[in-house]
TrEMBL record:
Domain of life the protein comes from: Bacteria
Signal peptide: none
Bias (Basic and acidic residues) ranges: 86-97
Gene3D superfamilies: Ebh helix bundles repeating unit (S and A modules) (1.20.120.1850)
Extracellular matrix-binding protein ebh GA module domain segment(s): 36-95
Originating organism: Mycoplasmopsis synoviae
Coiled coil (UniProt feature): none
Region of interest (Disordered), residue spans: 1-55, 78-97
Protein name (record): Phase-variable hemagglutinin
UniProt feature, compositional bias: Pro residues: 16-26
UniProt cross-references to InterPro entries, sorted A to Z: Extracell_matrix-bd_GA, GA_module
Pfam families with a match to the protein in the record: GA
Name of the gene this protein is made from: vlhA
Amino acid sequence: IAPAVIAISCGDQTPAPAPAPEPTPGNPNTDNPQNPNPGNPGGGTVDPVEAAKTETKTAIDASAELSDSVKEALKRQVEATTTETAARDLKTKAEAL
């Protein structure tokens, strides 16, 4: 009878892989976790042009005298504006209608 060879394995001796890093809060797929909204110029700041556009659209929606088609046309003009002054001017005009 041949002698029995018993091999005792202590398991795989390779180290466990490092845990995956936690995703950074903020905007997914970006390298800047400090600015959760790429439309804002900085974390926590509000773009004055976007704020004026939002105010103008709210004023347009609140106007009971304007038809839906006129409201949509005004909103398209608001979206096309590039300055705070132009957006506020459209708000004034919409409120005057």
